[in-house]
Amino acid sequence: MKGKLEEITVRDLIQQYCLEKRTARLILQHQKNVAEVYIKDGDIVHAKMDKQAGEMVIHQVLQWQNGNYETQDGKQPPAITIDRFWLNLLLEDQLPITSSTPSINPEQTPSPPKDKQAGFSPDLFLQEISSQLNGYLGSAIMSQKGIIIAQHAVRKLYLEEALPYISHLIKILPVIVEKSALGQFEEDLFTTDSAHCLMRALPTNQAFLLVFTDRSARGVGSLLFFSRTIAEQIPTFNLATIAAPASSQSNVRCLYQTNCPVYQRKIKVTDERYQQIKNLYCLAEFRACAVFELIQEINRSGLPINMYYSEIQALVRTS
Amino acid sequence: MQSNLYFHNPSKLELIFQTLKTELGEDLLGSFLVSAADNKLVYAILHPEQQEYPPFYTTIIKIANSISQKMQLGMVEDNLIITDRYYLLTRILGQNDYYWGVIVSKQAPLGSVRILIDRFSPQIINAIV
To answer: What is this structure's pTM?
Structure first.
């Protein structure tokens, strides 16, 4: 394939081949310079230009704004001169020298506490990723029912205003994809005038990771890669518990129903399940959801709200 | 929406879609053009079993637009759905008049697909208006 560097940046071109784990030779031409970049199974392994070879060449070609490119799929590298993680190599040039933002490599990607099951905090997790994503605007973890499990933003994002639409979208996306025989839904990414908005299904489609980034700050490829990396680190145990449907004794309700004089008669909760809920109950957003759910339940029940006064107070106190 | 939306030139559209097919080769699963006004299929190269789904795909982009507006993020330009097997990239054409979708296998280089869509979008607009 041939094209012009005005149409695609060198960074995006290399990144695309790396993300897709391809093997290829990329020939890049800018003014009188011609460079070759070799990618093997998604890793940048060799680059050369005139008598230069290695990382130095990558740093130079990343600055090229115009010229031509040609890709030759399947071409094996004649030598190995680069052994660094490709994303680190590409991001290095994007970051200002004085930036405190860390670059990404497999060892540095955000990691939850060792004890994933009990100690995982979605709030802290989102806070951590915010510092590792250039152009980060905000993120959230949502259950399929539209409950925000955790959210974080560096500017006002009006997520609540869009909640009914987001909730609707994450419900229908996996269904439409499956019905139309396109396979299993993984991600949806829409690009607006100013932002990239990504929704990634977490295992079993019961919860979704949402990431919003400034469009001018980051390419789509990096965002997709990053979302995959971080999504893998979210323990499915907690999310499955949070996102359990109400019809199957939703854990969200179990907690207050257990404490509620009216509903505890109706719902049986095992000790193990109760412990799981208790672990989750340390999350501020989750507590806010519980309050909200409780009030909804009270409205549905038609019982006077003062019957639930102590339960509401207890939830608000711990929020 | 203007009634002249359907005064498109089928032979021009056919030519564009065929060129796209040639460019993407086996990676192309299908492509479709849907009118935003009534969510009807204007043109498509799709497996017969999949012809009923483009309006659903465009519903997704409409909801995305609502999300974007509520969150004050501007107008949606395109939407990318990723499955375990395919990419479905839908681009809004004109003033939100048409939605053009391209479904490619995950083996296809996504960046190149975007470039092709950028390249063909003006031609499609010329063919349909």
So the answer is: 0.58
